[in-house]
Structure formats: C-alpha cells, structure tokens
Amino acid sequence: MVAEEKGTISIHTENIFPIIKKFLYSDHDIFLRELVSNAVDASQKLKRLAAIGEFTGEMGELLVKVSFDKEQKTITISDNGIGMTADEIKKYINQIAFSGASEFLEKYKDKASDGQQQIIGHFGLGFYSAFMVASTVEIITKSYREGSQAARWTCDGSTQYEITEAERQERGTDIILHIAEDSEEFLDKWRLSGILTKYCKFLPVQVELEGEKINNTQPLWTKSPSELKDEDYIAFYKELYPTAADPLFWIHLNVDYPFNLTGVLYFPKVDNNFEVNRDKIQLYSRQVFITDEVKDVVPEFLMLLHGVIDSPDIPLNVSRSFLQADSNVKKINAHITKKVADKLAEIFNNDRKGFEEKWDSINVFVKYGIISDDKFFERAKPFALLKNTESKLFTLDEYKEHTKANQTDKTEQLVWLYSNDAQKQSSYIQAATKRSFDVLLFDHIIDSHYIAFLERHLEKTAFKRVDADLADKLIDKDVSIASVLSDTEKETVKEIFNKNIGGEGVALSVESLSPDDLPVTITLPEFMRRMKEMYATNSMGNMFGAMPDSKNVTVNANHPLIGKILAESNEATKTKLIRHAYDLALLSQNELKGQALAEFIERSVSLLN
C-alpha cells in the first residue's frame, strides 16, 4: 500500500547549470548576441523610464560598446543603460530563468509605449551563455538610481559567486568575460565583427566594436511607408544583398493587430532554373536577428522572396534560435500570402503593361502559389496570365474567350494547346496555327504540375501538348477527311512501313490527313508523356525515365510521297523513301541524332542526285 503524498519537485542548481552553459545554445557565438541584447535592453529600459518621468537625469547618447584584450584574454560588453544595484544582481543574475525584462514589462504594462515593445529579453537565461566561452565572468554595474553604490559580481562557472563593492562613476554595466582556453578564437576583431554583423546589425541602440559603428539603428522596415521612396527600398535591398540585381518590386509589411509584424519582402529576378535559395528571408525579433530558416512563417511558394520579417509575436524556443508551432505563425503565414496577392493585384490593375513586362520573372511565384494554396488561387485568378508562342499574354478569362470559337471539341470541352519547347516543336506549332489554333507556351519546370492543377479547377477545359497527336485530332470536331487510297492500299502501306520501321514501342497507323501535313508524324501518348514530365522533378522520375518511349507513328495516306512509295517497284528505292519519311518525322521531334542523322544526310544527297 502506497501512502498518498504531495510535494514539490526539487531542482538542483548544480545539475542544471552545466546544461544551461553547454547545451542551451546550438552555436557558441550566440553568447555575444545575448549579452549585447541584454545591454540594449538596459538602454531601452532607461528610455522607457525617462518617457514616463521616472528617470529625470541626463540620459546622453545611449551606446553599447564591445571591446577585447588579446593579452588579458578578455571580452567586455559595456552599456550606459539602467544599471543594477547589488540586490538587483542577486535577483536577476543569481536566480536562473528569472527574467528582468519580463518583470519590467509587467510592472509598466499599464503605461504602454513604443519603447516597451523594444525590450528583447524574455527567458532570463541569455546571460549564462557567457559561460560557453568564459571561465570566469565579472559584472561591474551601477544603477541609475540616485545615490546607488556600484557593485561587482564574479563567478567562475560554478554555483559559487561573490558580490563586492566596486568603483564606477557612471550608471551602466560592464560584462567582462575571461575567455576560456578552448574559446580563444573569439579574441579576434574579425570574428567578433562577423558575429555582431550577423545578429546585431539592426539593433535599436548603437553598437560599437573597438570604436567602429556596427549597426543601423533605424532599418527601413521600422519606418512608415509614407516617408520612404523607391530609392530607399532599393538602397536597403543592396544593404541586405550587395551583389544582387535590383528587385522587381516589394511589399512593406506593417501590422499591429491581431499580431505585430513589420518587414519588407522583395521580389527578386528569378531565372528559369527554379533553384530555391531558402536563406534569403531573414527573421528578426525586435531587430535582433533570429534565423534565416522561415519556412513556417513564410508560405512555401514565397521562399524565393528576399527581405526581412520582424515580429515579437513569433514564438521562439528558449534559445531564441528556432521557431515553435503556434497559432500566430499560421496567422502570419496567411497574412503574408494575402499581402502578396493584394500587391500583385494592385500592380496588375494599375499598370498592366508593367505587370506583363515582369511576368517572366514573377510567374513562378504565382504558379507555385496557385498550386500550393487554393486561397491564393482564388485571389490570383484575375492576374494569373497565360503566354502563347507569339508572346501575347491573356488572363484565364480572356484566353477562354480567345479560344472558345475555334478550340471547342465535339463534347463542348475547351482544348488549350501548349508547347514546352517552341523550337523543338516548331513544325507541330505551325501545323496547329495553320488551323487557326492558338498554342500556349509552358516551358518552366513547374508547368507540368501547373497544367494538371488548372485542368482540375477550370470547368470543361483540357490541355494537350501540341505534339501529342495529329493536328486534326488535337481538337476532335468529328470531321473526317476523305482518303485518296483505298482500304486495301492502306493495309499495304501499313505492312511495308511496319516491315521497315516497326518494332518495340512503335504503334503504327495509316490515317487520311491533309496533303499539307508531313508524310509521317510521330507523337508520344499524352498519358505517358505527362507521367514522365510530372515525375521528372521528384524521386519517381527514374522509374518513368527507365521505361521505353512508346511512339505513335502515323502515316499520312493523302501525302503525295506515300502514293509514290506505294507505286515504287524497286524495293531498295522503296525502303530508302520509307526510311527517309520516318527520319523526317524524327527530325521534326529533334530525335534524329548521331549515326542516324549522318545516314539521313547522306541519303538526302543521294535522293537529290
């Protein structure tokens, strides 16, 4: 029998301290981010107190200084902010996970101001990151309160500490790190500069390293869009990405309800390779760099964008290095999607010509968004453009009107033809345009998926690649062409062609086509071709790529050459003509290469003699 008992779980500081020191942060260089952020908080708290009248002294220029001494093996982070008394050191430093920032915000929550929003700290653990690189840490500090005595706190990384009186004339705090032997790499100006540039480049209080200014305290996203010009946005883009080409346009985010979100997202010029660089959007929290892995905050299809997002409402783990799942993340994600759609619609409505000029660069965003987000598709319908082989652009509704008269089949289904390689499929495009069919251009790696999406979502609309069938069969209007050959002659033609070019993967037929069409036409079955295209971009591509191509070979019974072949009595000449007609079909598909192409050229010369 177990007696019922209630109690309090015991946490031993000596056990948790090594975990905080060694395992809380994934990268040791984060110690500098945390200590500089604390110094900025100390400065921001002083601003806050001055704003509400609780500090009436001379504030002066608030500044965070980072310095190092290679001989003494020390790194010092100094500020002239709020400072601490000895009692506050005991309260904020000696109590692990007690956040002075959180207590400050709670104390002054009824006197909210912009300054309050700039307090960075939250967990009360950042200070202890110092012990990842330091064998001993000193704090020399003096409170802003009149008559305060300066105090010194020292700790060697154990649970033992010492507090004594110190000499310091001005308010503020010095954190002195006595660098451990295994961390002496940080006693280097370029190393420290790199860390500060990465994490502290846009902190709201000036930061200096050895007297050199590190940060821009008022980055563009903290300003109102009304006070900014195009050149300001471009200059900031160059500050973020010095070697990049100018962006196409940008979206300034500025939301304060139901969450706080600021930032600027840029649309860069994207090439046709669709190489998604997923480290181009930087996430900040109150101007402190957190991460460039933003896949949960930014929709997948917008990972090609560049820029900055800053939100104190994005939940971070205790080390402030990674995002955590939260309803706010989903809301922010949805808001960014809507803002992007609104911006694209605005440009399209106000400057369609300019929008069309940008289409080649932005269509991948729009198509990817449409495929991955049904809500974005609904918003994008008015500005999702289709481009034909003559480089004319249409909205979905405009193209429906453009093609319905001539490209509606016998079942009242609209058939949209397309090419994924206008040069390779030139002869098929010409055959289609001779029949007054329009041909779209879909030559991006994403387009096979985009076409499949549109077929599922557009009513009574089908897509066919222009070389997927004979021109007269691409859009079945139930119209037949009379044959100049009898049924017996057709069978004879089929036999002699099968004898010369038939084999595995070749499905041969003899059809009555226009005399203007090629004597022999090769098409790839639509289903197999689509499967090969759809899976070319994922792991199943090899499965379909290993399957032999199945070709539909159609002999044009009404072409004069076929009649000539049928009448030819010399078997060698007949074989040569059949092979030549078939090679012409291969050539039109850009599939005649190597030895076969050399033989075709040699045969062409002999036929001309």
From TrEMBL:
Name of the protein: Chaperone protein HtpG
UniProt keyword terms in alphabetical order: ATP-binding, Chaperone, Cytoplasm, Nucleotide-binding, Stress response
Pfam families: HATPase_c_3, HSP90
Chain positions recorded as ATP binding sites: 34, 38, 79, 84, 99-100, 173, 320
Family annotation (SUPFAM superfamilies): ATPase domain of HSP90 chaperone/DNA topoisomerase II/histidine kinase, HSP90 C-terminal domain, Ribosomal protein S5 domain 2-like
Family: Belongs to the heat shock protein 90 family.
Cross-referenced InterPro entries: HATPase_C_sf, Heat_shock_protein_90_CS, HSP90_C, Hsp90_fam, Hsp90_N, Ribosomal_Su5_D2-typ_SF
Highest taxon listed in the record's lineage: Bacteria
PANTHER family assigned to the protein according to its UniProt record, in alphabetical order: HEAT SHOCK PROTEIN 90 FAMILY MEMBER
UniProt-recorded Gene Ontology molecular function terms: ATP binding; ATP hydrolysis activity; ATP-dependent protein folding chaperone; unfolded protein binding
